[in-house]
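Design request, tokens follow.
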């Protein structure tokens, strides 16, 4: 076995992460993972439609020091990448590419087994990446009731099949106690992300988030550095100010798709709410939360699909062109457009799209440069959101760091 000995650049590591997210990775059947590592938990959606013989680690780390990246394991037996172990050391291997790279895992959190009003803490909230506490108040979204859910969404189906907490909606005192205990007991938690589907109305969902944020302000042992609320904007604009007075210092209103007519096809429920209303909400959020704290999210991989959402209509070149137009437009408005990679866990209405790794990498690289040059993110920050070892399932923090590194900062 040849272990890749030369120090790999950040750019090489990001390209590998991109390949691993798109192609997934296989796992040697004889492997025994070490004790005390953080194992995969289903949070928002499924990361694989296949299951290994035992619970696998959530993420892997590879690269040295400033070039280290974190990457989600998407188990896929057909992938040319494979996790193997020799003498209690672990590697990502790709025989065709003669690649043998040492990997490590994220240590488990100490507080996962705590009792929260009769619930196990780790079923209410979870570690994401290396330092983020993630909570989903509601895995349900009222768009599903009328079949108006976003066509790529797998949140509700994943909940029905895989999530451990028994109800889609969690009670506020349970959420707040779980967050409070987790922050008190685990010093690794630096940031908080609360992400919810629509509950009974846009204003009700927003008020639900406000109540969580307000109670947290009263009970938390310390405020996380970054606290992000991800939901739809409210119908009543005055609620935005109220959210700004809580623990939350960042908001994300995902628009998912940039071109208006395509947005209506992919996101019929959001289409009824109104494309322009989401943009207006983002602009208002920038005023309330400050520059660099208003985010939207788009799904990379579906922007180029035709109106039938046929996976075969994905066009890598067009995907980049359309996505870059979106990036430029949002940056002009002072809004940061995050992108997640389209992924099919077996549940949504679009199906599998084999993304082009090289083109995907090129898009995110350009994204990093554009966002870095926009100066919407403070110069001292190494990430666009949270920290470099937080977001294991997308590439934008990594390519922002790359742009900064290449600018010699
Ligand atoms: S708004 Fe769309 S993506 Fe979000 S939970 Fe509802 S259906 Fe899913």
């Amino acid at each position: 076995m040849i272990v890749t000995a030369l120090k790999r650049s950040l750019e090489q590591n990001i390209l590998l992460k991109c390949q691993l997210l798109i192609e997934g990775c296989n796992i040697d059947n004889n492997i025994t993972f070490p004790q005390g590592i953080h194992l995969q938990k289903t949070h928002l959606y499924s990361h694989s439609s296949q299951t290994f013989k035992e619970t696998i680690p959530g993420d892997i780390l590879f690269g040295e020091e400033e070039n280290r990246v974190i990457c989600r394991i998407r188990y896929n037996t057909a992938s040319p990448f494979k996790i193997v172990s020799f003498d209690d050391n672990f590697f990502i291997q790709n025989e065709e590419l003669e690649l043998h790279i040492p990997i490590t895992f994220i240590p488990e959190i100490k507080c996962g087994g705590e009792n929260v009003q009769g619930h196990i803490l780790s079923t209410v909230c979870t570690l994401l990446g290396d330092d983020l506490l993630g909570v989903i108040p509601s895995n349900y979204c009222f768009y599903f009731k009328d079949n108006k859910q976003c066509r790529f969404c797998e949140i509700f189906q994943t909940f029905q099949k895989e999530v451990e907490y028994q109800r889609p909606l969690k009670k506020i005192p349970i959420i707040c106690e779980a967050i409070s205990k987790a922050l008190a007991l685990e010093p690794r938690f630096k940031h908080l992300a609360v992400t919810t589907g629509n509950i009974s109305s846009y204003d009700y969902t927003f008020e639900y988030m406000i109540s969580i944020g307000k109670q947290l302000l009263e009970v938390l042992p310390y405020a996380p550095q970054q606290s992000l609320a991800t939901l739809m904007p409210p119908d009543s604009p005055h609620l935005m100010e109220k959210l700004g007075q809580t623990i939350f210092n960042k908001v994300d209103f995902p628009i998912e798709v940039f071109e208006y007519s395509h947005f209506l096809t992919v996101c019929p429920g959001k289409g009824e709410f109104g494309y322009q209303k989401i943009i207006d909400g983002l602009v208002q959020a920038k005023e309330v939360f400050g520059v660099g704290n208003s985010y939207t999210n788009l799904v990379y991989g579906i922007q180029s699909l035709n109106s039938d959402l046929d996976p075969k209509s994905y066009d890598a070149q067009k995907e980049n062109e359309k996505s870059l137009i979106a990036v430029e437009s949002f940056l002009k408005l002072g809004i940061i457009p995050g992108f997640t990679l389209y992924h099919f866990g077996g549940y949504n209405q679009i199906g599998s799209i084999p993304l082009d790794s090289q083109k995907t990498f090129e898009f995110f690289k350009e994204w990093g440069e554009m966002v870095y040059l926009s100066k919407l993110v403070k110069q001292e920050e190494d990430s666009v959101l949270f920290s470099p070892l937080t977001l294991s399932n997308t590439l934008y923090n990594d390519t922002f760091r790359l742009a900064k590194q290449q600018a010699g900062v």
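Comment from the thread starter after seeing the answer: thanks! The first strand starts at residue 26 and ends at 27.
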